[in-house]
Specification:
With 112 residues, this protein is mostly helical. It has four helices and no strands. The chain has one domain (8-104). Helix content is 71%, strand content 0%.
Length: 112
């Protein structure tokens, strides 16, 4: 009752159009589909490789800074409130010690 039914020719044309659109959307079987997990792993590897390219002095400073933050927070809780600068001093001391330790473990490839 509601309009002309589609002719067989029109139905075939629409079916071919649909198949073509589906084929255009499907990735080529030779192309790898990258999932979220793979991208996260690739980013993790990027951070590891960036850290690996840093000179030992800088690595030591970063690690010393992280240790210094942990010790600085611990010192803040252990000492009375008037001694707040001790936490900052511990942080800076750990950075300097990390730099010195990193410089002593340097194999000599960065200073040339």
């Amino acid at each position: 009752m509601g309009g002309n039914p589609m002719s067989d020719r029109e139905r075939e044309r629409l079916e071919r159009l649909r198949q073509r659109q589906l084929a255009d959307r499907d990735p080529d079987p030779r192309v790898k589909v990258k999932w979220k997990g793979q991208a996260a792993r690739r980013q993790e590897n990027l951070l590891k490789s960036l850290f690996a390219t840093l000179p030992p002095k800088v690595k030591g400073m970063i690690l010393g800074g992280l240790v210094g933050v942990a010790l600085g927070i611990a010192v803040e809780f252990l000492l009375p409130p008037g001694w707040a600068l001790c936490g900052v001093a511990v942080f800076l001391l750990c950075i300097v010690l990390g730099m010195i330790l990193g410089a002593t473990t340097d194999q000599g490839g960065y200073m040339e």
